[in-house]
Amino acid sequence: MSLREVRDDVPDQQNISKLKSNPIQAYFNFVKFFLGIGIVLFKHYLLGILAVPFAAQTAGWLWSSVLNVFIFYTAYKSNRMLIEVADDLKFEGILYHQAARLSLGSNWAHFIDITIVFQQICICTAYLVFLTQSIGNFIIHLGYQSAYWVPFALSLIVTGPLSFIKRIHFFHQMSQIGFYFEVLGLILVMSDCIRLILNEEYSMDNVVNFENTFKFIGNSIFQYEVAQSVLPVRDSMIDRFKFQGVALASITTSFVLSLSTSFLSVITYQDNINPVVIFSIQSYRAQFTAIILQSTSLLFFYPLQLFPAIQIVEQFLSNKSYTPIEAEDENSLLDQAIFTSDIKQMSVRMSLMIVIYLIGYYIPTFINDLHIVGSILGSSIQYLFPILIHLIHFRGTLNRPIISYTYIIILAFIMLSIGFYEIIISLF
Question: Which of 63, 47, 127 is nearest to 418 (CA)?
Answer without folding.
Answer: 47
